[in-house]
Write a structure and sequence with these properties.
Helix 5 packs across helix 6 and helix 5 (101-112) crosses helix 10 (240-246). Helix content is 38%, strand content 21%. The radius of gyration is 19 Å and the shape is globular. It has 273 residues and is α/β, with parallel strands linked by helices. The protein has a six-stranded mixed sheet with strand order 2-1-3-5-6-4. A six-stranded parallel sheet has the order 9-8-7-10-12-13, sandwiched between helices. It has twelve helices and 13 strands. It binds NADP nicotinamide-adenine-dinucleotide phosphate. Residues 101, 104, 127-132, 151-153, 156, 189-192, 194, 216-218, 239, 242-243, 246 line the site of NADP nicotinamide-adenine-dinucleotide phosphate.
Length: 273
């Protein structure tokens, strides 16, 4: 039987076993997908278990994404650019890492806002943490002409923009009011929205009526930002789709079947949020 995993610390909250379990059943795969709590001190030993062939691969989440990146034998170009890995595959030539967060982000927008990247004038990205990095790489891969990266700590945004290169203008969150009028897409990559927190001073009324607002926070499914966007009559895309779509390439690499993100799967996960 092919065994796959998700490791993190803590890991009990992860919805990944439900997603992959659903696809394993749907496709009649002789496989398993289990959540394993690995403490930071044990990550090296766990990677050796994977390298020995005990697993076909798996997912990696907080706090291991950067550590694993350094421990594998090879990485694909986009994982290199993002500087973090969330998916591992055991191959004959060693342990390979890639990053599917950016594919999840793009897959979610492509499915729920088709054509979002046609005639895009500029995108506003809120937040400059680990996920923002993958999302900036994703936006650049679709040739978004201008990106405004706004973050509470402006220096972190500047460092990220410098690392990635290209046309990324940085500023504080308060700069939203001066860049909103030309924004076709707003992406929240901060943790604001979780546990009832909400933005102060982000006036979505300044956006063009055709703008799309997406949030990568998915608990709650409708964050205060998405609720405000809906009230303002803007198109919204929630963060659950990103979680579902980022799981597709891993499943395909481990079990040889490309699964689909269906309304049924979405309902299954939604019921647990
Ligand atoms: P991270 O690396 O810790 O970055 C957090 C970001 O939020 C930073 O930009 C930080 O600003 C900002 N922030 C936090 N508290 C703030 C506050 N009170 N006011 C203003 N800014 C604040 O986190 P991450 O890994 O990027 O993840 C961010 C969120 O995305 C998490 O909620 C995570 O669950 C979610 N996520 C969802 C998916 C998905 O599949 N849908 C995937 C990955 C992550 P500073 O730089 O100033 O600290």
């Amino acid at each position: 039987m092919k065994r796959a995993f998700v490791i993190g610390h803590p890991i009990a909250h992860s919805r990944s076993p439900l997603i992959h379990g659903h696809w394993i059943k749907e496709h009649g795969v002789d496989g398993s997908y289990e959540a394993i709590d690995v403490a930071p001190a044990d990550i090296g030993a766990f990677i050796e278990r994977v390298r020995s062939g005990e697993f076909v691969g798996g997912n990696v989440t907080i706090p291991h994404k950067e550590a694993v990146f350094a421990l594998v034998d090879s990485r694909d170009d986009l994982a290199e650019e993002i500087g973090a890995a969330n998916t591992l595959v055991t191959r004959v030539d060693g342990l390979h890492a890639f990053n599917t967060d950016y594919l999840g982000f793009l897959g979610n927008l492509d499915q729920n806002a088709p054509g979002w990247d046609a005639n895009l004038e500029s995108a506003v990205v809120l937040g400059a943490g680990g996920s923002a990095r993958a999302i900036l790489v994703a936006l650049k891969s679709r040739n978004v002409p201008a990106i405004h990266l706004l973050n509470r700590t402006v220096e972190k945004a500047q460092n990220l923009a410098f690392d990635l290169g290209g046309r990324i203008e940085c500023g504080p969150l308060s700069e939203f009011r001066s860049v909103a009028a030309r924004a076709s897409l707003v992406v929240n990559c901060t943790s604001i929205g979780m546990q009832g927190s909400s933005f102060d001073g982000i006036d979505l009324g300044l956006l063009p009526k055709s703008a799309i607002v997406t949030d990568i926070v998915y608990v709650p499914l409708e964050t205060p930002l998405l609720a405000a966007a809906r009230t303002a009559g803007l198109k919204t895309v929630d963060g659950l789709g990103m979680l579902l779509h980022q799981a597709v390439p891993g499943f395909e690499a481990w079990f040889g079947v490309r699964p689909e993100v269906t309304p049924e799967l979405r309902r299954l996960i939604e019921a647990t949020l």
